[in-house]
Amino acid sequence: MQTSAVPDLAHNHARPVHWLATATAMAAVVAAAGLLQPDHARAGQAGGREAAAPAPEATGVPLPLECAGAPTVVVERATGDLDGDGGPETVVAARCEAGSGTPPSGIYVLARSRTGEPRVVATLLEPARRQSAAGLAVRDGVVTAVLLGYSSPEVPRCCPDERETVKWRWSGGKFAESAEGGGGTGSA
After folding, report:
1. Are strands 142-149 and 162-171 parallel, antiparallel or unpaired?
2. Residue 89 near residue 79 (C-beta atoms within 8 A)
3. 156 pLDDT exceeds 70?
4. What's the mean pLDDT in 101-127?
5. What DSSP character marks residue 33?
6. What is the spatial distance between Cα 97 and Cα 71, in angstroms, rounded to a whole number?
7. Residue 74's closest CA among 53, 99, 91, 54?
8. pTM value?
9. What backbone phi and psi angles, to 5 degrees, belong to 17?
10. By the 8 A CB rule, do 168 and 176 touch?
11. 143 and 79 in contact (C-beta within 8 Å)?
């Protein structure tokens, strides 16, 4: 055994009071760490809140429009949390790029997949309904759009003569559609 250069160190002989003081200090450190530790559901999140991924972009996402070789164009876009999960979805009104007339629109909801890629998760307005969409908005989880249509085949395809405001709300695992004030005619 090697002898110490300073033979009377205070800690050479631990007494019960030293062990008690050490145990008390360690208990205080463990208790403080437990109180200051973040909630497991929010661990790793800045300030207790996770920075939400941005709303998905429609660029490069194949939309279910049949355009016979013509390109598709997104004419309106709105974002918001539609299903209450804290992450924003994107709603787009898209149509085929046409040289003339008013081609029908489709309204689609885009969300991020588990890998973060944007994808179509719902179709709110099928192009087969032969309506155009305008005034697309998302407020308080509700999608609103003005749908423009035609009262008869004799109405020129450039000039819709029917206008209806429609809302979609996420309910029971799907989007429920409701019309505001019924479908009426009026200038578009």
Report:
1. antiparallel
2. yes
3. yes
4. 91
5. H
6. 6
7. 91
8. 0.68
9. -65, -35
10. yes
11. no
